Amino acid sequence: MISTRAFQRLRNVKQLGLAHMVFPAADYSRFSHSLGVCHVTQRIIRSLRRSGQAIESDEEQRYRLAGLLHDIGHYPFSHAMEEAVHDHYSELITVDAAQPQEAVPVAEEDRVPWLNHEAVGKEVLTHDEELLNVLNSAGIRPEEIFQIFAREQPPRFANLISSDLDADRIDYLLRTAHHTGLPYGAVDLGYLLGQVRVDNNGQICIHPKALRTADHFLLGRYFDYQQVAFHKAVAAMEWLLKEVIKHLLSSGRLDCSTRATRERIAQGSWGSVDDPYLLGLIRDLAVNGAGTVKEMAEAILYRRPPKLLAQLEYIDPRSVGAGRSFRDRRRRVNELVGRWAEELGLPLDRWYVREGSLTMTKVGANIPISELPQLDDDETNQAIRVLNTRTGASERIMADRRSLMHVLADRALYSLRIYALIPANREAELNEIRAHVHTGLDDDEWT
Amino acid sequence: MQQIECVSVYPQQRYSRLEPKLVALKLFLDALGIPADIDTVEDRKRVQKAVYLGQISGPNLGYRFNWYHMGPYSPALTRDYYELAGELENDPEAVRDKSLRESALQRLRETADLLKPPPTVPLDQPDWLELLASYHFLRQISHYSRAKAIALLTEQKAHVADYVASAEAALRAARLLN
Predict the structure, then answer these.
(1) Which has the least CB within 10 A, A18, A36, B72, B90?
(2) B20 contacts in A (CB within 8 Å)?
């Protein structure tokens, strides 16, 4: 399976996008990450078996394969590209309300205009001839695999695949720490995996002995995200990438339609759709393009990120009020950017306002934890669960008063950043531009 | 060397954070007659299942659904509807100048009737949608037999399982079940 072209392609798809522009060694591939997820999945399965779960070897093999292949459908530069593709095809189905239009029938095969990475993964598993031959030779049907990683059937071990403590996140944290040199991956993984259990409802959970280790894992992940994915330069470079990809799509130089993707997979050329392929298109744009998008392409290739002009970050409770206050500030900034663009002679397409909220757990930044006891929806059920050894049931970690998450999960880091792509011939004005922006921000918390 | 003309395809008169995918989502929900409210679990369930059902016959927005505790669920949709809710709080008329293409609207209008609980089914809309979406997913995506799907719903969704026959009939009438 690893030797197939579809899998070997992952050697040329970076896990961390453009993070290597800041952390030079952070250019590990989805190939190595996928091997890691396969391994961690195996360790979890074997830990469950040691704790008394009856898991046949062929079931273990399917879970391992699901871990190995879970990223097989990822686009180059993964998240930036998928967001750009999503926006592009959303634009295609919307029109100006005042525009007269006729109902043009849409061919059934075009009704699904694009495929997210999971759907691409399913297409690869079911139509890549080389990969299918490998599965057939092992007597495994492709649906047995993508039904696990795509959760197309109620899975036996649901949160093995998607939760705060899934194999994907575990490998991600350890591997990113190793490659960036940051210390946040120093989690006692062996102990944590050894304490994985299944509660009497079939949900994966941890023995309470590993509660501190789980807290440590979540804290490590929080700091890792803050320092790597949310790094000011990484975030800025990812914005450039998204804008350039949107241009490549709208100008027709890149086709990520469902039809085109399926054709590539059927023809065996999906293996060539990787980071170097996309960088080739970006390089062409940098040489032959014009205007802001040409500058953006050059900025990606030669590491010239947009400048951070102002930043607002604070930790606040995850409450409706805090969310509203944050959005008020963001709205004010959006209004100011329009004014600054005119005053400074920097067109709007050079500005980027990045907002974000970062929480400790996969349970989103949107639900006040005070509501948690009343909630039993799919979002909240992805949190790490802790076994109650007396009852055999489990509860979400933030509900456990022994856990640091009981306190910290109720907080989020709110972040607003204002960037601008400054033309080379105006870089000397950077300090003045920053000063101008700060004069307009009447809030002392901005830095 | 050929000069490639680069024209901004996303002209902006003011800095706007409302991404095209959120515009499409709001218009999609409007066409289905589903409010974009997400204050309660039931609100969020309604949105999740309505998008799942709308995507079956209507324009596919690209949200992929997996099986979770409450049936088909999309984590990406969750992120987007929270973002959309925030944007609408700032500007409730944020998508007033936009519309879906007529071909998409037609399909969604046809689906909108399916989303209302029949008079003979004493379920509220979120529960009705949970039943419809779950049964459809188990039959069409998980490829469960009728008996196996009903058994699972009986075990895991007792609050709606009594009305599976009505859900099946409604899905067939809407030509959403093979």
Answers:
(1) B90
(2) 87-88, 90-91, 94
Residue B10 pLDDT > 50: no
3-state helix/strand/coil string of chain B? CCCCCCCCCCCCCCCCCCCHHHHHHHHHHHHHCCCCCCCCHHHHHHHHHHHHHHHHHCCCCCCCCEEECCEEECHHHHHHHHHHHHHHHHCCCCCCCEEECHHHHHHHHHHHHHHCCCCCCCCCHHHHHHHHHHHHHHHHHCCCCHHHHHHHHHHHCHHHHCCHHHHHHHHHHCCCCC
Give residue-wise pLDDT tens across range B63-101. Answer: 999 888 778 999 899 889 888 887 887 778 888 889 998
Residues of B in contact with A261 (CB under 8 A): none
Cβ contact A151–B66 (<8 Å): yes
pLDDT for A373? 44
Closest Cα in chain A, distance from residue B169 (Å): 23
pLDDT class of A115 with cuts at 50, 70, 90: very high
**CA atoms lying within 13 Å on the CB side of residue B135:** 27
Q: What is the pLDDT of residues A162-191, one digit of tens each?
A: 667 789 989 999 999 999 999 888 889 889
> Among A134-148, A358-372, B105-119, where is mean pLDDT lowest?
A358-372
Q: What is the mean pLDDT of residues A41-57?
A: 91
Whether B75 has its CB under 8 Å from any CB of chain A: the answer is yes
Nearest to A224, CA basis, from A83, A23, A419:
A23
> Between chains, do B142 and A153 touch, taking CB under 8 Å as contact?
yes
- Could you give the CA distance from residue B172 to residue B178 in angstroms, rounded to a whole number? 8
pLDDT tens-digit profile of B12-71? 445 766 889 999 999 999 999 999 888 888 899 999 999 999 999 878 999 999 888 778
Q: Which of A192, A213, A215, A216 is nearest to A204 (CA)?
A: A192
* Chain B CB within 8 Å of residue A325 CB: no
pLDDT for the residue B59: 86
Report the C-alpha gap between B73 and A379 in whole angstroms.
9
Residues sharing a CB contact under 8 Å with residue B61, sequence separation 6 or more, in sequence order: A90, B21, B24, B25, B28, B51, B55
Among B5, B6, B12, B103, pick the best mutation site for testing chain A contact (most A Cβ within 10 A).
B6
Average pLDDT over chain A reads 89
Q: Are A203 and A161 in contact (CB under 8 A)?
A: no
CB distance B8–A349 less than 8 Å? yes
Q: Judge whether B106 is closer than 8 Å to chain A, CB to CB.
A: yes
B9 touches A at CB < 8 Å: yes
Per-residue confidence (pLDDT) for residue A103, from 0 to 100: 61
CATH of A5-79+114-226, one of 3.40.30.10, 1.10.1040.10, 1.10.3210.10, 2.40.50.140: 1.10.3210.10
- Does B155 contact A at CB distance below 8 Å? no
Predicted confidence at residue A380, as pLDDT, reads 65
> In this structure, are residues A17 and A82 in contact, taking their beta carbons and an 8 Å threshold?
no
* Mean pLDDT of the A393-407 span: 91
* B60: chain A residues, CB-CB within 8 Å: 111-113
DSSP letters for A303-345: T-PPEEEEEEEEEEE--HHHHHHHHHHHHHHHHHHHHHHHHHT
